[in-house]
Amino acid sequence: MQEDPQYFAKRKPIKCPHCKSKTVVPIIYGLPTLEAFENEKKGKLVLGGCVVGPFDPAWQCTSCGTQIYKEERRSLFEGNDGNT
Ligand SMILES: [Zn+2]
User: What is the number of domains present in the chain?
Assistant: First the structure.
């Protein structure tokens, strides 16, 4: 479990909210294509794996590893405390 602060954004941030680097790339889920692998090597995206859950971040900073979630998912986090 990570306890880092979680960042939210409506669209892909240009700068990392943590380290201010302009190295925020989309995280691609599912079975990656050959093109996706090539783009990962170039640092244009991050491959997130095949398992897709409700709390997966949408973007990641390749400089510091900070992950940013889509704004719409905020309610999933906030509505998850003591839901009997
Ligand atoms: Zn960063």
Answer: 1
Q: Is 19 helix (H, G, I), strand (E, B) or coil?
A: coil
**Over the stretch 38-71, which tens digit does the pLDDT of each residue have?**
999 999 999 997 766 777 899 999 999 999 999 8
Distance 84 CA to ligand 1 centre (A): 36
2 domain residue, yes or no: no
46-49 and 59-61 beta bridge pairing:
unpaired
68 C-alpha to ligand 1 centroid (Å) = 10
Q: Which two tokens stand for residue 60?
A: 């990641």
CA of 82 to the centre of ligand 1 (A): 32
Give me the chain's average pLDDT, please.
85
